[in-house]
Amino acid sequence: MTDILCIQHLSVSLGHTRILRDVSFDVPQGSITGIVGGSGSGKTTIGLAILGLLPDVMERTDGRIVFDGQDITDHSGQQMRALRGAGVSMAFQEPMSAFNPVMTIGAQIGETVLAHENVSGTIVRERTLAALRSAGINDAQRVAAAYPFELSGGLRQRAMIAQAIVCRPKLLIADEPTSSLDVNTQDKILDLFKELRRSLGLAIVLVTHDLGVVRRVADEVVVLCKGEVAEQGKAEAVLSSPRCGYTRTLLEAEGL
Amino acid sequence: MKDAFLRNKWAVAALWALGALYACALFADFLAPYSFKDEARGLSYCPPTAIHIIHEGRLRSPFVYGMKLTFNEYRQRIYVTDRAKVYPVKFFSSRLFLVDAPGRLYLLGADSRGRDVFSRIIYGARVSLTIGLIGVLISFALGLLVGGIAGYYGGRIDNVLMRLCEVLMMAPGFYLLLALRAAVPDNFNSVQVYFAIVIILSVIGWAGLARVVRGMCLSLRERDYVLAAKTFGLSDVQIIIRHILPHTVAYSIAAVMLSIPGYILGESALSLIGLGIQDPYASWGNMLSDAMSIVRIKFAPWILWPAFFIFISVVCFNVIGDALRDALDPMLKREANV
Prior knowledge:
Shape of chain A: globular
CATH topology of the largest domain in chain A: Rossmann fold
Shape of chain B: elongated
CATH superfamily of the largest domain in chain B: MetI-like
Helix content of chain B: 55-70%
Structural class of chain B: alpha+beta
Number of domains of chain B: 2
Oligomer: heterodimer
CATH class of the largest domain in chain A: Alpha Beta
CATH architecture of the largest domain in chain B: Orthogonal Bundle
């Protein structure tokens, strides 16, 4: 299996503080890779670095990012913008704040389509409804016409995922996608990830602090500790026989 | 929000008053008995004409008497009613109401050239009331654009644009207005002058809004949905227009209403000192230039009527703006309910 994403020696610093230090890992095509770490371990920064959306105060000091066989490290703003949404997209932890409160869900998903493809309104609408359905939403019509505050947390998260996959990206970065949901809904969203991987061949980078989530869905796992890779490998191997002390601490804290 | 606005009785009254004024401007050709340049030199500063219904003890349909100019012992102009001449008021002919020549019907008196003040006020509304709307459109487009760009990008762009705003705001408004007017060629026709004034007023007006919008954008750009829009590959222009500026709308609408009076007063001020709309075209401002001498106000106080309409429209816009701001700002409303 080839790798859809290769991160090589990525370092990011904020002034003199180093957020990420020499982080390297690969994401095989069509796999789910869990990135695990405590608060402040730099796991969200990895996602933003891949998308080229690091905050102004942060700076990538070293490393390369290869996506789909292409080195995107030195891509221009224009090239990165074309890639975002269509090649790599991101789903956020809190879909309530990740949707613009004054636009309907359908308008926001359609806007993503229009940002990448020059298609007619009817096709945009079809694509929007199709994406909502693949995200496991049955009454896609109603959800498309709804404003974010009118939906439940689980539906919102599905709509968020629909927006992320509407342009058929090859890689989805899901940043704590289940943290704000109850356990039941969490399970369903995780099932949805598995389903999307199977039906769309989507590779997913699952950023989370929850080892339980990783155990349920991830093939590969990268454990981050203070901006450095503490341990990485097959999910089962890492979780059943952790070699690193930090992973053990995380596992114990979860009672696993 | 609509309910909150409609509960404010003053605002509703102001809305009706403004609606009536704009309707007058729109239907000026029908409502005004005379054209704005219809002169009657012999009836200079003729006082308001009384409309009678009783002639020689008998009731009849409304009519006016003829007016005759004479002079008293101090050589002052005196208009006396000529009861021999009767001019019936005709309704719904070519105009809403008028009397046959040589009779004249001056509802609000006549100006120095015997033109009807009432008609000129109605025609003047076209200039005075639209200059605010068009001016505000231009300056708000500018203000939102500059404020949006400065707030979204921040850094050096922000710095340059905001210093520019400050330079504009630093100059005293009225003198800047005069300076800009001086830069406009004086052989412009009336339409060109109209648009020159609109543009001059807009150039002065956008800076304040740009600063406030920029401040709002600085905080709006940190919202998650802006970052989300970026991760989906939307361009900066799309993000500013669709995801940032709509959130400043509540403030902007109220600010639009509250800034229109500035344009009305600005046009009036320019026209008053003869730099705006030129005679014979009417605007409330240039009609008042006749009233700059205390002697004329003493003998023909009705030439002050345009000032009343300026006052009314300015107050109405302010009342509506205030009510909109209250209705659109839930924080203020909550305080009021406590």
